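Researcher: I'd like a structural prediction for the single chain below. Treat it as a standalone chain; there are no partners to consider.
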Amino acid sequence: MSMNQASLECRHINLSYGATPVLRGINLKIEPGEFFALLGPSGSGKSTLLRLIAGFNQHQSGELLVDGQDISGVPPHRRNIGMVFQNYALWPHMTVWDNVAFGLVERRESRDAIRRKVGAVLELVGLQDYARRRPGQLSGGQQQRVALARTIVIEPRLLLLDEPLSNLDKQLRVQMRDELKNLQRKLGLTTIFVTHDQEEAMTTADRMAVLDAGVLQQVGTAAGLYDYPQNRFVAGFVGTANLLEGRVAELDGASLRFDVQGLGQLTLPAPAEPPAVGAAALAFRPHQVSIAAPGEPADAARVWLDGQVQSAEFLGEFSRYRVRVGDLALISDQPHRAGSALFAPGARVRLGLDPRQLRYLPL
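Model: Treating it as a single chain, here is the predicted structure.
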């Protein structure tokens, strides 16, 4: 099966329910054949945006372009966009084959074409041996494949997935994640999926958009958003981040002074693109923070802070420490090696920050 690859563009899209703005000034371009995630907490507007693309709700202003053509006024059944809902919405009284064939029957395709297309798509999702079963005789993962098959058999211009893996248990989610990615690669079909699970977005999507309170916060690859978050929300939502709030007090050639609320003054090497003087937050990841006993020799390239361990969690491949530094609690993740003892709660330690990994964000 070969699919046409469509591009999608949102231009200045606004949508309100009554007086409540749900999407605000959304500008977004998704490339042909891209696997794209809309990521955000519940209530961020991501499902509203997906349903808007499908045509189930209508924006009050802005343009929605598929391959450069505005489809804002086109009803859902004329858009040729496939959507897989969270609950799969399969017909329980129909066989797998009839569920998948349904859209083609509706389109009055010939019996031969239906047989060929349904056969091909069931093979694609590995369900050719289940054609005569009913959805109730299938596992959750199989039901999801039927829902996918039913959607892609009509050869849509875009495939939309609403929280596609949330109904599956953890192990199956990881397996289906890989299957979904492989299927999307095979079809080359432009696919947009909604998730609140950052790991799901980071492991599958080519690029993603992070939404919060109806506003598009940042768009990019997983690594781009993780390493270079543009604001505090993205830093805290994509991965775990330590955030120090304060102000850049002065820039002095190679170094800058950062006054941290609850901690005091830090003198840090100035980054290549120094931040402006004024309020800022300093973000860095827990695995970038080294931890050492007070007397240990220290890496001179790091900035060291004295602290006290509040808690130590053993998480298998790493141990997570919460360390009190001044009035703040910072998180440090250390790779675990067999035989190495954890620092106990109450232990005095030093935390080493790597200046190259610090990100200055607007407050």
